[in-house]
Amino acid sequence: QVQLVDTGGDLVQPGGSLRLSCAASGSVNSINSMSWYRQAPGRERDMVATITRGGATTYADSVKGRFSISRDDAKNTLYLQMKNVKPEDAAVYYCSAEGLHYTDLGVPIAYRAWGQGTQVTVSS
Q: For residues 75 and 68, what is the distance between their CA atoms, to the nearest angstrom?
C-alpha cells in the first residue's frame, strides 16, 4: 500500500508561482511513476505532469514551459513547480502513484493511489 499526502495549494495571483508537494509513504519502492492531475468544477480530472522511475517527464500541452515536475527520492516527495500561473490553472490538484504489488504467488497486481487533493485558486 502507498499513501499520498498533497500539500501546498493556495491562493495565487495570475502570473505568480506556487509549489505543490506530495509526500509518499508505505511501499514506495513499488512505485513506477508519479503524476499530478487536476480537476476543476464540472470538469474531468486531467493529467498535468508525470515522472517515471527513470526520471522521464511528460506534460500536458497547457502547462508545458510553465510547470515542472520533480521528485526527491531521499524524502519520498513529489513536487510540482508552477510558474506564470493562469486563471485556467485553478483546480484541485491530486498527486497519483502507479505501481505493482505482488501476491504471495508472485502475481503482479497494478495499482493507482491518490492523494486527498489540494486546492489552487488563481485570483488577483
A: 18
Contact 36, 20 (CB under 8 A): yes
**How far apart (Å, rounded) are the C-alpha atoms in residues 124 and 16?**
10
Choose among 36, 63, 33: nearest CA to 49.
Answer: 36
Residue 9 amino acid letter: G
Q: Determine the length of the chain.
A: 124
Listing DSSP states for 39-100 in one string gives E-TTS--EEEEEEETT--EEE-GGGTTTEEEEEETTTTEEEEEE-S--GGG-EEEEEEEEEE
The DSSP code for 108 is E
Q: Tell me the average confidence (pLDDT) per consecutive run of 10 residues in the chain, 124 residues long.
A: 96 98 95 97 97 97 98 96 98 97 91 97 95
